[in-house]
Amino acid sequence: MQGTDRDEQDRLHELLGHLAQAVGTARDLPSIFRAVRDFAIVATPSNALFASLYDPLAAQRTCVYAWSEGVEIDVSTLPPLPMSDSPHSRAVLTGEVIVTDDLQAALVGQPRVDLTFDRDPRQPQSSLAVPMAVMGRVLGGFEVQSPRLAAYHDRHVSALRLAAHLAGTAIENVQLFAQERRLRQEAETSEQRFRFLAEASRILGGSLDKATTRAAIVQTIVPALADWSVLDLVEDPAMAGPTTVAAVDAAMADIVHELRHRLPLAGSGSDPASVALRTGRPHLITTMTAELLEAMSQDAEQARLFAALAPCSLLAVPLIVHGQTIGVLTLGRSNTAQRYQLEDVPLVAELAHRAALGLDNVRLYAEAQTAIKVRDQFLSVASHELKTPLASLRMYADLLERRSTREPPRSERDQRTIRSILTQADRLHRLIDSLLNLSRIQAGRLAIERVPVDVAALARQVVSGWEPLLTEHTLQLSTDESLWIEGDAVRLEQVLQNLLQNAIKYSPLGGRIVVEAIRREKWACLVITDEGIGIPTAAQPHLFQQFFRAANVDPTQISGFGIGLYVVHEIVQLHGGNITVVSTEGAGSTFTVCLPALPPDDPSYRS
Fold first, then answer.
1. Domain for residue 445, yes or no?
2. For 66, which of 73, 98, 179, 530 could close a Cys bridge (C-beta 3.0–4.6 Å)?
3. Are residues 423 and 537 in the same domain?
4. Is the Cβ–Cβ distance between 582 and 534 less than 8 Å?
5. Residue that is last in its domain, among 419, 439, 459
6. Listed residues 314, 341, 363: the one ending a domain
7. In which domain, by residue range, is 129 found?
8. CB atoms within 10 A of CB 500
9. Per-residue pLDDT tens digits for 159-191
């Protein structure tokens, strides 16, 4: 007798070893319970097994595996069962093994699931329900059944208790594995969506042309998020604007174009795009039904086009910027295997937000370009119109000055008045020239005529013209004998005049101004140094931008528009050179213009 018990124990240990190995490698719940089933068939007189997982918050259990009389039963559509006084529920609730010798009597009045085996005349007569728990936490339970009354005994209870422990541990591992896989998939999905949005932003920011940006929006979506996509822009709240379409093939694109032509965007329409436009919120149709298509179709031709397109799922999202809806982005799937879900809405809504910002940037750029064009036209016209009366004013002022030297001398006051007129006329002339040059630069019409130019001689000429006019400043000139470049003498004189004029203007207390024209390796350099107010360090990187003036300049004492250095920079750039500044606030500034020099031994330009 003892030998028989020992053999039985050895057999049980062997079966448990096989069970432990089977459930330890299982990756899903059916595999776990198939192993438990195979163990129960051999270790107990059972012909049926049912397993469930427990939801304590909802106070219900869900059947996850069912087997009876050699047949696995599909449990995917079974509803959850409320906890009751059935043996299975009591085992889960109490955490104790429940042995039922007469199962039919125990199930009277208990909620049942209408499974195929319930119609079998060979009703189960007894059962053994075992809870599955890990670290005191009940995960669920399983129940084995037998066609005989009082079929289960202590040895069966011990065997299935051990099986339940192994199954519970395996279930927790499967759940942890599933959770890890789900988290990994969510992380991968988030990363993919981030990359998609980043790439979409890059594409949308690649152009400021309206048509190109519209096309980029729908082409970014297809085929990554849709089989076809439609972008409707509302140019005026009272009328629909242009429509842009992309699709996985040309035939589908033609159908979508024709359908949108026959079913335009309308605030009162029932199609998803019109609903999104009207409500200002995304509109999702996860599954397109025949009834919905019929409701959206206004005539037989629209119904034919919808049938040809065969949409199975639609998502429309409004494009909103600064609180105003500027259009609607519609995505469609014609593949029944892929449908839009609620979790797809945030991604498409974010894409629509970025698309709306991109389109708004295009609009702002177009408005800015129009404003710049109007400004340049005004500057050009105004400058030319001012030239004629200014020339007359300068001519009459010169005439008065010459008469004052031939006729009886005028009073000192009259002579100061004439000199003031001439000075202000010259100042206005330079301002008009700067405005004209600015207009030419903006229009791309500022050109240079390249001829050999001796910049050393040019420097001597400009300095000699300024020397008689200065009373509080001292000009010091240092030049090479000759310093030849290939450039435009008129434009280069303008550069030197502007820099020298600035050196005088921004040295209001007078002082020394040094002008140098020297060779530095392959460069011909013009260097102008003053002892004036200097330039703050923070302002120096912006000095050659148009209309920029440093913060330390008092506009009531030193006039200017911030145009001259911008024009100088552009002229130097056209000559293939560069201009730099070194300055200390309160101690003066040094501007250096370097231009490509001609070789000193090249005789071709000396003629």
1. no
2. 73
3. no
4. no
5. 439
6. 363
7. 2-178
8. 23
9. 999 999 999 999 999 989 888 988 888 888 788
